[in-house]
Amino acid sequence: MSLTGNTPEGTGHVGTLTPNQATALKQLWAALYEIQANGTVTVTHDPKLNTPPTPAVDPAPVAASVGWGGGWFGSAAAAPAAPVEPVAEPPLTITLEEVGLSAADVRTELWNNVMCDHPDSLVLRFLRARKWHVGNGLIMLLKAFKWRQEMHVEDVKYWGDNELEAAYPKFKKQLEMGKFYVHGTDKLGQPVVYLNVQLHKAGDQDYKTLERLTIYLMETGRLLIQPPVETVALVFDLTGFGLANMDYNLVQFLVKCFEAYYPESLGAILVHNAPLVFWGVWKVIEPWLDPVVASKIKFTYKNQELLEFIPAEHLPNTFKDAGLDKFIYTYIPPVEGENAAMEDQEKKAQVVKEWDELSGKFDDATRVWIKTGGDVSEEREKLAKELKSQYYKMQPYIRAKNQYQRLNNAGKSVIQPDGTVVWTYHN
């Protein structure tokens, strides 16, 4: 299945791989297993794996179908590039010692990061981000694992809102004030994250609180993405923006997260209603951006322009004369006892053991798949589905609830126990 339901073969997502892309995927899985077994791996890059597939359809409609293309450069469609002769590279040797991870660390961070996704989906994000260079993709993946370990990402998932507030003062205040929220989907089915920049002042809270909040947003957002979609859309609402709202450190951290630690998770960025004072700020920010991230930025000014990307029925009517959804953001606070299952150590040990057994079977099936060839392994696909189901079964015992899993005043939650996401619109 494709990213948006109509993405053609060769786009590099689960179910759309070309033979070259499937080969790169196998090679990265094989390298992951070898580096865990030996502490080192040498990867010889095949330049043919970088060769983009021949488009099956006209490139212009494809570009329009998979994002909010155009950026500030105009149309996302471009003339076909002239063929480039592949360049051979020397073998690349990677060691766990250099990265600062043990073999056990790699396996733990890998499966903590897979969560409810198809395991291939995670690996493919790093391959696409490194243009199918297996060695570079592996290095990027391992560095992301190291970052997750150093940043204690699992704590952000394990701790409830009250615990995060105790450790990071004013954490809940950020949620309560609606500085950011996720609501509904755009025309491509991507969850939309709204960031109300005018509510932010850098000195109002400790920077560590903002780091935790960003990771919280990233990890919560992953639960709101529904396959086959794999990305989110951001709307930076700059209405009322002034220089006091600018936080360069936070912007750098956010950019780094999307580029290095959650690659291929960002579908589009709308910078909305930017005032004149913002353009001096933009001159500072623009050089920080990776070209791939930069290409996903679009500037909008009138609220009606948002309707090109977000259905009126999904857009909050705070965007006057455009949005029809009578949505008012309200933080849903924790309920006493909502994480009681996490205290049941016996049941937790049981469901975690079942997860570990399934992930071990997936590893075994992947090793067979690597050796025997073929683009698809039925056993792996079966196990991937079982892992997804097991994650939701395990989740109440290993992860605290967030506000999208809590019941609102109408007795409804956005995220259902089985992982299904149900948005409610008030039109």
Average predicted local confidence, pLDDT: 90
Fraction of residues in H or I helices:
40-55%
Overall domain count:
3
CATH superfamily of the largest domain: CRAL-TRIO lipid binding domain
Residue share in β-strands: 5-15%
Report on this model:
Pfam families: CRAL_TRIO, CRAL_TRIO_N. This is CRAL-TRIO domain-containing protein. There is one protein chain. The chain contains 15 helices and seven strands. The two termini are 31 Å apart. It has three domains: 19-150, no CATH class; 168-308, Phosphatidylinositol Transfer Protein Sec14p (3-Layer(aba) Sandwich); 343-398. The longest helix is centred in the C-terminal third of the chain and has 28 residues, at 345-372. The chain has 427 residues and is an alpha/beta fold. The protein has helices at 19-38, 59-65, 96-99, 103-114, 119-129, 134-150, 153-158, 161-167, 171-176, 207-224, 248-261, 278-285, 291-294, 345-372, 378-398, and strands at residues 40-43, 92-95, 180-185, 191-196, 232-237, 266-272, 297-300.
Brief sketch in words of this structure:
By secondary structure, this protein is an alpha/beta fold. The protein is built from 15 helices and seven strands. α1 crosses α5, α1 (19-38) packs across α14 and α14 (345-372) packs antiparallel against α15 (378-398).
